[in-house]
Write a structure and sequence with these properties.
InterPro entries: ClpP/crotonase-like_dom_sf, Enoyl-CoA_hyd/isom_CS, Enoyl-CoA_hydra/iso, Enoyl-CoA_hydra_C. It catalyses: a (3S)-3-hydroxyacyl-CoA = a (2E)-enoyl-CoA + H2O; a 4-saturated-(3S)-3-hydroxyacyl-CoA = a (3E)-enoyl-CoA + H2O. This protein has 257 residues and is an alpha/beta fold. 45% of the residues lie in helices and 16% in strands. Strand 2, helix 1 and strand 3 form a beta-alpha-beta unit. The mean pLDDT is 97. Bound molecules: acetoacetyl-coenzyme A.
């Protein structure tokens, strides 16, 4: 197992937890966090022993955004040629389901990392926002696109143009968050969700994630075709035979691991 400078990676059974760990900076996402998260998630993604990955931070901050100290000195040519934010797309290529467990601040890049995950579970103290406008910039890790798809044009515009922060209740009403739990129960709940997903057929979970995520990227007709092609492909996996045979034999399935 590798050790990292800015994140902690822990594996329990089939569930991995990636914890952003810069507590003195409210988990501000500098380029090291970015690279380490990409490397960690990529390695876990191709590990057949891992069925779900929790992404979390501390009680006070999931992440308070991209690192402003680091960004303050940047100039356009370098951000472009070095692809300053490029490593984040490595996270979004994970086929394994990612579950964001958000406590405290999820601002700017923090909100955007949560939205790179497939499910967002919020502690009741969670605060989501895209305050980049207050720094003279705009969201740069997907906020303008993923937030708009998640909560709709008008709520997203409200948040992005005013920079205001919303609480867990408002985030759940808006569809950003799928469940809210007491802060102290956050990791237990996220672990329960992750274990549930990890207990399923890995083929099904990976393909279901991919097909569902495609819904926001394509037309309905193309999306339906993509779903159907992938549905047919499932008949080539051992888990299809096992899952349906187990049902017919009235027993629990034993998935290919
Ligand atoms: N980058 C770098 N450092 C940060 C940070 C950030 N995004 N957020 C907090 N910190 C640091 C603070 O500078 C402070 O460090 P020092 O102790 O060394 O001074 C430490 O974390 C604790 O922060 P505060 O003292 O500010 O804590 P607070 O409880 O008083 O306030 C807060 C909390 C309201 C979240 C406040 O820290 C804050 O407003 N942070 C910035 C939020 C923000 O603007 N995020 C968007 C960043 S831009 C972005 O993300 C771009 C993008 O889309 C890619």
């Amino acid at each position: 197992e590798r050790t990292f400078e800015t994140i902690l990676v822990e594996v329990n059974g089939r569930v991995a937890t990636v914890t952003i760990n810069r507590p003195d900076k409210l988990n501000a996402l500098n380029t090291t966090v970015q690279r380490e998260m990409a490397e960690a998630v990529e390695a876990l993604d191709v590990d057949p022993g891992i069925g779900a990955i929790i992404v979390t931070g501390s009680k006070k901050a999931f992440a308070a955004g991209a690192d402003i100290a680091e960004m303050a000195e940047l100039e356009y040519p370098g951000t472009f040629t070095e692809d300053f934010m490029g490593n984040w797309s490595r996270l979004t290529r994970a086929r394994t389901p990612l579950i964001a467990a958000v406590s405290g601040y999820a601002l700017g890049g923090g909100c955007e990392v949560a939205m790179m995950c497939d499910i967002i579970i919020a502690a009741d103290n969670a605060k989501f926002g895209q305050p980049e406008i207050n720094l003279g910039v705009i969201p740069g890790m997907g906020g303008s696109q993923r937030l708009t798809r998640a909560v709709g044009q008008y709520k997203a515009m409200d948040m992005i143009l005013t920079g205001r922060t919303i609480g867990a209740e408002e985030a759940e009403r808006a569809g950003l968050v799928s469940r809210i739990v007491p802060t102290d129960d956050l990791l237990a709940e996220a672990t329960k969700v992750a274990e549930t997903i990890a207990s399923k057929s890995k083929y099904s979970a990976m393909v279901a994630k991919r097909v569902t995520a495609r819904a926001l990227q394509t037309t309905l007709a193309e999306g339906l075709e993509y779903e159907q092609a992938n549905f047919y492909a499932m008949f080539g996996t051992p888990d299809h035979k096992e899952g349906m045979t187990a049902f017919n034999e009235k027993r629990e399935p034993k998935w290919d691991r």
